[in-house]
Amino acid sequence: MREIDPDLSVVVPMYDEEEVLPIFFERMRPLLDGLGVSYEVLVVDDGSRDATASMLLAAAVDWPELRLVRLLRNSGHQAALSAGFRRARGNHLVTIDADLQDPPEVIAELLAAVRTSEVDVVYGVRSDRSSDSWGKRTTARMYYRLMCRLVGKDIPFDAGDFRLVSRRVVDAVNALPEDGRVFRLVIPWLGFPSTEVKYVRAERAAGTTKYNLSKMFRLAFDSVTAFSAAPLRLATWLGLLGGVLSALFVVGALVVKLAGNSVPGWTSTVLAVSVIGAIQLLCLGLLGEYVARLFQSSQKRPQFLVGYDSLEDQGHKALEE
Ligand code: UDP
Ligand code: MG
């Protein structure tokens, strides 16, 4: 049964990581073998175009715990993680980057934390971002601030996608029907008991970043739109503002006309432009409100999740006796 149901699944999304792979195998295998738990390493090859796929296949020949899932095309880091969540079979699941920026040695600490404090989520939190550039640190800080407000929960600052979750969390995430999920937001949003383990994030062991600017924008847009319809509602507020401004304008234009010193045609032009503009923005805002409602119901997120239910638990006991 052990092979089907390991204690730990280590999910690793990989996109064009041929340079890092030899170091990855060399460091990961002895470490995981030495953890004293049964495990699987589930590598999700996110449509790599280099030698990643063939190197993985070759390595799997004499590493039975290595499982491979290959996506047909490059679908992005978060989509690759989704695939890993669906395929993983372990009782606990760790997600870790392929480039060894998250030191694999910390996996032992994550496991220890979940055992001692009986939580469902252990976030790996960077205690020091000095390995990142100034630009990356600043944008990251802005991102986490904004996300805390949108999600309405404490998003652990500087927690990336290096974390351990229990089977309960994996099942809850897989039950969310929405697309484009951003794990670092959805997991805190679910609200399972959690703790943190601090670690120092290393430099990329080899190769270059696979997160280009457009992928970072994608992540930022997905993050905002997954938790907030505020951008859609912007038109309503602009429309209201436009309405107030055009009312003031109309009064002003009439005063100028009555004083008799307006250019012929000016009053009617100003009136037409400002009133129509305000009406259009208001209508757009109204549409936005409906689209926002549709969008929220299409996400089909659960209204609540049950952590403990005394009725159910008594039921279990009654059955066992
Ligand atoms: N990755 C992926 N698909 C992508 C981009 C990245 O699976 O489209 C993987 C990548 O191979 C790595 C992880 O996501 O394991 C994080 O990417 P990277 O280290 O390049 O990002 P950075 O650390 O520079 O933010
Ligand atoms: Mg990296």
Automatic annotation (TrEMBL):
<feature type="transmembrane region" description="Helical">
    <location>
        <begin position="271"/>
        <end position="292"/>
    </location>
</feature>
<keyword id="KW-0812">Transmembrane</keyword>
<comment type="similarity">
    <text>Belongs to the glycosyltransferase 2 family.</text>
</comment>
<feature type="domain" description="Glycosyltransferase 2-like">
    <location>
        <begin position="9"/>
        <end position="171"/>
    </location>
</feature>
<dbReference type="InterPro" id="IPR029044">
    <property type="entry name" value="Nucleotide-diphossugar_trans"/>
</dbReference>
<feature type="transmembrane region" description="Helical">
    <location>
        <begin position="237"/>
        <end position="259"/>
    </location>
</feature>
<dbReference type="Pfam" id="PF00535">
    <property type="entry name" value="Glycos_transf_2"/>
</dbReference>
<dbReference type="InterPro" id="IPR001173">
    <property type="entry name" value="Glyco_trans_2-like"/>
</dbReference>
<dbReference type="InterPro" id="IPR050256">
    <property type="entry name" value="Glycosyltransferase_2"/>
</dbReference>
<keyword id="KW-0808">Transferase</keyword>
<protein>
    <submittedName>
        <fullName>Glycosyltransferase family 2 protein</fullName>
    </submittedName>
</protein>
<keyword id="KW-0328">Glycosyltransferase</keyword>
<keyword id="KW-1133">Transmembrane helix</keyword>
<keyword id="KW-0472">Membrane</keyword>
